[in-house]
Amino acid sequence: MGSAAVILNRDGSSPPELSFEELLPCLYQTFFGLTVLCVIYINWMLYYRRSPCAHEYRADNEKHFTDEKGKQVPFPSLSDESTLDLSVIVPAYNEQDRIRPMLDSCLNFLTDVSRKWTFEVIVVSDGSTDGTCDVVMEYVRQYGSDQIRLLKLYENRGKGGAVSLGMHSARGRTLLFADADGATSFQDLEQLESALLLLASNDMTECAKKLHAVVCGSRAHLETESMAQRSIFRTFLMVCFHFHVWLFGVRSIKDTQCGFKLFTRPAARILFNNLHVKGWAFDVEMLYVAEELKFKLVEVPVHWTEIEGSKIVPVWSWLEMGYDVLKIWFKYRIGSWVIRK
């Protein structure tokens, strides 16, 4: 059997044992110091850290678009009355390789003679450093700036910031947010429009007046298949994230992250005037506010295909989203963020 080590002073004597009463002041000081640090951190996070999107700065050159003749034209405002049936908002960051097939699919569907709706597509280049803007301007010259426009942001604002500024530049009675990768088929827009028509009691003019509604495309019906294709670790993280969102964020929508959502204009005005989160979790805040305000929310299954080139970094992006979801719940609960109606 080994012997226990004994610590001795230099003179060979044993150090004095400290009683609990003698240790108590040190414990108090440690506890007090940690408490002060926690209070300072929470106070900074809640009150002094700048909210990223609710008061998003927009430079003067971001308030205009270039038409097919090269002329600078000011964007309209979401606070204006609608002049079109549909606006499609497409956030894009370095998407020169993926956005062309997406725009082909989108514009082929929207210009089909069987569709009677007037429309516009607004591509929001979120500080792109590749040829994304050049590709979009090709379509502007081909279709005209009344049908497709480029909102060029000179700084990367994050996906939530890009979508928000695109919505604030739209003319549509209804507004669709769609990802630039084209993972969701535009044919499914008809299902979202049908669901919205039911919410509007078969009167689409209500979408520009009093109806506050959001129709969410959903991949929840594909979850079993996607689990079979993912590793056990990634599946575990996905399930944890969904539970995290349900617990602290949104409970009426199963798939909060699908990039295919249709809004009425009154709903978009309120939701995108209250958006603080500019990262991947902006959908959660948007739907959280919609639930708090008792908006009409519907989830519609859509076709979805995995497209290579995603900007989401596995694990890290999920952890970032998880933190943002917790921050959304916490800040609204303590009143640091207030919903403006």
Explain what you see.
The relative contact order is 0.13. Helix 7 runs parallel beside helix 10. This protein has 341 residues and is an alpha/beta fold. Helix content is 40%, strand content 16%. It has a seven-stranded mixed sheet, sandwiched between helices. It has ten helices and nine strands. Its main location: endoplasmic reticulum. One of its GO terms (cellular component) is endoplasmic reticulum membrane.
Shape: elongated
Please indicate the percent range of residues in DSSP E strands (runs of 2 or more). Answer: 15-25%
Q: End-to-end span in angstroms?
A: 74 Å
Helix/strand class: alpha/beta
Instruction: Let me know the number of strands.
Output: 9
Q: Unreliable stretches, pLDDT < 50, 5 or more residues? A: none
Membrane topology: Single-pass membrane protein
Family: Belongs to the glycosyltransferase 2 family.
GO molecular function, one term: dolichyl-phosphate beta-glucosyltransferase activity
Keywords: Endoplasmic reticulum, Glycosyltransferase, Membrane, Signal-anchor, Transferase, Transmembrane, Transmembrane helix
